[in-house]
Specification:
Length: 392
């Protein structure tokens, strides 16, 4: 190396040392060290703690606007499926049921009366029709006799024609009577169908009201912890208002907690290794909760149905969040400040020269960072210990 190159290298090192010394103020001088770019794994997965909680919250809605008359359980208490929690006022619903029963009874009486009327009218119509049929039959017999007498000269043609005319009118009257009878019977059948439909409608409403009556005794739909109660004795609750909320213990989930610096590694659908009583199995990340006012981030972890039983009776669990691990990639030891950006200017030592170059980082692991471009395996980077010498 000629004198000019040596001077350039020494100048860069002097500038680097000066910058580091200025940043540290009156502290001791920083020691410059080298880091070699190599190949290997970059592990971003991390451990954190989780707690077991109910996966579902079951709510019971108020079937009608009424008031609370009794409370048997309070929030925080455990309830078993079918256990009575609170009672609502039954007065309104009982009055409605009584009214519907009265209307059903009236309609059933009207239906029975309609059926009796139909039978009576049917008898009258049949009797009238039979009388008209008998009259037609008599006229037909009389016509036959008069036609025989006409052949023998014992009667006149006018007489025969008059009987024929009367027979025609009687037959028309019989046909009209039969059609009227059919129409009348159809009307009676329609009245019966209408009454039947009304009774069915009232009975349907009655069944609905009876179902609502049962709901005024508010019972736990599942076993679990009572989280919320709509009100105290004497309080009115609105229609469809949530009466109770219960944490359903039949389905469990894990709520994991990690530092805010791990947020970029936690994604919905990501995989988590769960450790319970020395046994490992996999879970899947659900919703992620990032509270701006908190220094930590929380997230739901769901496990397969056949693993649910392993969570029973467990409170705290160790989790290993499977992040973006890489195998056999270019890497460098993770240095302070690297997480601030993926693009860095670094001082790269090549033989007897020191050059400034930009490197692009990929996955940030626990100990190492993946290098995507900018350097090759075996390259040497000058850094300060314990701080970094690179410039953004």
């Amino acid at each position: 190396m000629d004198n000019r190159s040596r001077l350039f290298v020494f100048s860069l090192l002097a500038i680097l040392a000066s910058v580091l010394f200025a940043c540290k103020g009156n502290s001791d001088k920083s020691e410059i060290k080298t880091e070699v770019v190599d190949r290997g794994p970059v592990v971003a997965s991390f451990k954190c703690q989780g707690s077991v909680r109910a996966a579902n919250v079951v709510s019971v809605l108020n079937p009608l606007r009424n008031s609370v008359v009794a409370v048997q359980k309070m929030p925080g208490e455990r309830v078993e499926k079918g256990e009575l929690i609170m009672q609502l006022d039954k007065t309104q619903i009982l009055d409605e049921i009584a009214s519907l029963n009265n209307q059903i009874q009236q309609k059933e009486n009207a239906l029975e009366k309609n059926r009796l009327n139909a039978r009576s009218i049917q008898l009258d119509l049949n009797q009238s029709e039979q009388a008209k049929k008998a009259r037609v039959q008599n006229m037909q017999n009389s016509l036959e006799q008069q036609e025989k007498l006409l052949e023998a000269g014992g009667t006149s043609q006018a007489r025969v024609d008059q009987i024929k005319q009367n027979l025609l009118l009687a037959e028309q009257d019989l046909n009209n009577q039969a059609e009227k009878n059919s129409i009348r019977l159809q009307q009676l059948e329609m009245d019966e169908r209408n009454l039947t439909l009304q009774i069915q409608s009232f009975k349907k409403s009655l069944n609905t009201q009876r179902a609502i009556l049962q709901k005024t005794d508010v019972k736990a739909p599942v076993s679990g912890i009572l989280l919320e109660l709509a009100g105290n004795v004497g309080d009115y609750v609105s229609l469809d208002q949530v009466l109770v909320k219960i944490a359903d213990e039949s389905a469990l989930k894990i709520v994991g907690t990690a530092g805010k610096n791990k947020l970029s590694l936690i994604h919905a659908g990501g995989k988590v290794e769960v450790l319970v009583n020395g046994e490992k199995f996999m879970g899947t990340i659900g919703q992620v909760y990032d509270d701006e006012n908190s220094e930590s981030v929380s997230f739901d972890v769901f496990v397969a149905e056949n693993e649910q039983q392993k969570l029973m009776g467990v409170e705290n669990i160790e989790l290993l969040v499977k992040a973006n691990d890489k195998e056999n990639v270019l890497r460098i030891l993770k240095l302070p400040g690297m997480k601030l950006s993926q693009h860095f200017d670094v001082l790269l030592q090549k033989d007897d020269e020191v050059v400034r170059t930009e490197i692009v980082l990929g996955t940030f692991g626990k100990d190492y960072c993946e290098i995507i471009s900018g350097v090759n395996e075996g390259d040497v980077i000058l850094v300060e210990d314990p701080s970094t010498a690179m410039v953004q």
